[in-house]
């Protein structure tokens, strides 16, 4: 742990400036405030958080931990990558083909017609679907022209301002409504709550899952096979989403570092993880619901092989094959993420 003392101290000194209790100062908590009315409100449950915490694993072993690494906190868009893992599980079960049009297997849930009917699972996974419609009361337009920290694209217009849609696969846009539509589609494939599927196929086989929860919006329910099931979001933009501990996040990162294999068992299909790391043709900074560091575009100090799960509120899961490392940090002020990565990179380089 001594090697990472400087990085840990730096992270601990730069906590995200959100209140620890969302109810204490609602106007300073979350990212929904930037949305156009009436969509600038929470629609699902949220809960108080802990302080800065994290875990470092090198060579498959935990070498550092700080804060409350087992505390299950909201993790925002890190959950998007979890949807990509579930898509891999669906592939292993013969429930999808990434190149297949979603509506071919799931008619009647929003993937029909000339435009949406052309959308494939790959389009959804790389955020190029251009899906158009309303998902549980949220129109895709709410997220038109959205900019996030690591998106190099210049602004195209005001957030929520309607723009001309492009053909599926031809335009990249970070869009939570479309991600929620992907989650709905996966629910229809598994026909079980995605929380249960993720626990059974990923977290529990890794030895984790304590305190894990994946909650939906208050009104995001569907009835399948006579059961009322929650459709969960791929983040906590409007509340709900994944609550998970830093150690469990590190376990998931280790699974990806190990190519989807754990304790001699292939939990994800062979080649799936490598495909997740391949750059999107029109957005080479992005893979399948994960961020890439090609040419050091995200973090110059990190190896170019590095890739990341990133969530609002300062959540990072950094997978570094060059150093056989997984680094998790939570509730770090994003304005200081580069300083943290630089200090960890220096420690990893020293061995």
Account of the 3D structure:
The protein has a domain at 2-78 and 211-217 and 242-350: Beta-lactamase (3-Layer(aba) Sandwich). The chain is built from 9 helices and 15 strands. The chain has a 6-stranded antiparallel sheet with strand order 2-1-15-14-13-12, with helices on both faces. A 3-stranded antiparallel sheet has the order 3-9-6. The chain has 351 residues and is an alpha+beta fold. It is 25% helix and 16% strand. It is globular, with a radius of gyration of 19 Å. The longest helix has 15 residues, at 78-92. Helix 1 (5-12) runs antiparallel to helix 9 (337-350), helix 2 packs parallel to helix 5 and helix 2 (78-92) packs across helix 6 (194-203).
Topology:
Blueprint: H1 5-12, E1 53-58, E2 61-66, E3 73-74, H2 78-92, H3 102-105, H4 121-125, E4 134-135, E5 138-139, H5 176-190, H6 194-203, E6 213-215, E7 221-224, E8 227-230, E9 241-244, H7 246-257, E10 261-262, E11 265-266, H8 272-276, E12 291-292, E13 307-311, E14 315-320, E15 325-330, H9 337-350
Antiparallel strand pairs: 1-2, 1-15, 3-9, 4-5, 6-9, 7-8, 10-11, 12-13, 13-14, 14-15
Helix pairs in contact: 1-9, 2-5, 2-6
Pfam families: Beta-lactamase
Domain Beta-lactamase-related: 50-329
InterPro entries: Beta-lactam-related (IPR001466), Beta-lactam/transpept-like (IPR012338), Diverse_Enzym_Activities (IPR050789)
Q: Give the assembly state of these chains.
A: single chain
Strand order of the largest sheet: 2-1-15-14-13-12
Number of strands: 15
Estimate what percentage of residues fall within beta strands: 15-25%
Total of DSSP H or I helical runs spanning 4+ residues? 9
CATH architecture of the domain at 2-78 and 211-217 and 242-350: 3-Layer(aba) Sandwich
As a percent range, the share of helical residues equals 25-40%
Q: Kindly name the structural category.
A: alpha+beta
Sequence stretches where pLDDT stays below 50 over 5 or more residues: none
End-to-end Cα distance: 12 Å
**CATH domain class name of the domain at 2-78 and 211-217 and 242-350:** Alpha Beta
Along the chain, the helix and strand elements come as HEEEHHHEEHHEEEEHEEHEEEEH
CATH superfamily of the domain at 2-78 and 211-217 and 242-350: DD-peptidase/beta-lactamase superfamily
Our Rg estimate from Cα atoms comes to: 19 Å
Average predicted local confidence, pLDDT: 97
Largest sheet: 6 strands, antiparallel
CATH topology name of the domain at 2-78 and 211-217 and 242-350: Beta-lactamase
Shape: globular
